[in-house]
Amino acid sequence: MTGDEQEILAAAERDLMGDIDTTVPHSARIWNYWLGGKDYFPVDQAAGDDYTAVYPAIVDLARASRAFLGRAVRHLAGECGVRQFLDVGTGLPTEGNTHEVAQGVAPGSHIVYVDNDPLVLVHARALLTSRPEGATHYIEADLHVPKDIAERAAEHLDFSRPVALMLMGILGHVNDDAEARSIVAQLLEPLPSGSYLVLYDGTATDQAFLEAQQGYDETGAVPYRLRHPDQIRSFFTGLELLEPGVVPLQQWRPDASGDHGEVDAYCGVGRKP
């Protein structure tokens, strides 16, 4: 980060501090902590440590999710020729962000990031800078209002050309299964044939994971719903799944040097016919 970028980010954070509750943990900041970042508060570190004390594998899951993002975006930008990405619930920037991966393959790629956390958006505007051949945009919007997201994204993306819709670990914040499926459907509806859904979420496949998540939910933070793998597969209904289908994170087209084990999260990439 340049000196000017650091000054802009610091000033924006000072302006925001009065609106941020630093007494309640926040999932994006805890995720940043698990990934080795620095954008979190003591309450987030404490919640993250409490979580890992019950379920240490969450750190591996966080890293595996980031690796899946990279592999999926590289595949779509490379082999599939996708040049537009709508990343909903982007979280705090770390290494290997969507625009960095996509523009590393295709410099002219356009990316729209969506989040409803003001701290996330401040970091995004300061750090998620596009290559000159492409573009990045940032929308403050609520996942529970997908029509608003789609309408505002259409101001920056060409919905006559394929778009990769990315829902990376965020549908767990929608407790109701029917609402979660409706959100996915509404976000996909205006996208043209040849668009893609890229999605992962945590699974209710380990008792320690369930216990750790319950403890986190009881802190007053926004709760997260762990689902059965079949429930995650249901989000891809009507889409053409890319091989190998909906699988544990590390099994989706793994790199030759990557970890081929399993974590308690499932992912997939589906093409809209």
Give an account of the 3D structure:
The chain is of the alpha/beta class and 273 residues long. The chain has helices at 3-16, 27-34, 42-54, 58-78, 98-105, 118-127, 146-153, 177-188, 207-217, 229-233, and strands at residues 84-88, 110-115, 135-140, 164-168, 196-202, 240-241, 247-248, 265-271. It has a single domain (3-271), classed as Vaccinia Virus protein VP39 (Rossmann fold, 3-Layer(aba) Sandwich), CATH 3.40.50.150.
What is the compact description of this entry?
The protein is of the alpha/beta class.
Tell the overall outline: globular
- Count all strands and give the number: 8
Count of discrete structural domains: 1
Q: Residue share in helices?
A: 40-55%
Which stretches of 5+ consecutive residues score pLDDT under 50? 14-18
Give the overall pLDDT as a whole number: 89
Give the topology string: H per helix, E per strand. Answer: HHHHEHEHEHEHEHHEEE
| CATH superfamily placement | Vaccinia Virus protein VP39
Biggest pleated-sheet summary:
8 strands, mixed
Compute the gyration radius: what is it?
A: 18 Å
Named at the architecture level, the CATH assignment is 3-Layer(aba) Sandwich
Continuous helix count? 10
Straight-line distance between termini: 41 Å
- The CATH topology label is Rossmann fold
